[in-house]
Amino acid sequence: xxxxxxxxxxxxxxxxxxxxxxxxxxxxxxxxxxxxxxxxxxxxxxxxxxxxxxxxxxxxxxxxxxxxxxxxxxxxxxxxxxxxxxxxxxxxxxxxxxxxxxxxxxxxxxxxxxxxxxxxxxxxxxxxxxxxxxxxxxxxxxxxxxxxxxxxxxxxxxxxxxxxxxxxxxxxxxxxxxxxxxxxxxxxxxxxxxxxxxxxxxxxxxxxxx
Length: 210
Fold this sequence. Notes:
Blueprint: E1 5-8, E2 16-17, H1 19-29, H2 34-37, H3 45-51, H4 57-65, H5 74-82, E3 85-87, H6 90-100, E4 104-109, H7 113-127, E5 138-141, H8 142-145, H9 152-162, E6 169-173, H10 176-184, E7 188-191, H11 200-203
Parallel strand pairs: 1-4, 1-6, 4-5, 6-7
Antiparallel strand pairs: 2-3
């Protein structure tokens, strides 16, 4: 392969994620079966719409409130929703910086405004304001562009907007349905098997080798 461009997923690839932590947090608030309608593999229309920016933060919370006690605050909902975000190891950011010296790299994430605000604050506090985002040529968030993986349109959008050649582009994600979506557009794509202990810095160490 003659790879010149790399598109990275965010959650589960760069930022460590544990969906069980959010499920446990919502269970503590009163939603005992949260993982039945939101998980890594599948989710309800509510979460799809939130990731596409079709509904606002307030509308998202309002929808969740039908399953919650009356005294639950916005802050409690946001904290439970953000519980799955575990942070980014410094050595992973260092790895991405080195990759960016040799390749055009992009971020492509299915994510919503509550999560974006939370991990942006985390990144700014840990690495310095804007340091993380500046690693990438561009960061694409589904809620900003009204498209989401695994739909072909979002991959075509990133390719076209940046003049990327499919044969020179690889997409890395930890969800098989997103990898399959990328492959269907003609991009080379690989699954990062986080459950098997794979990380981008160990699986793709060859990217920064001389």
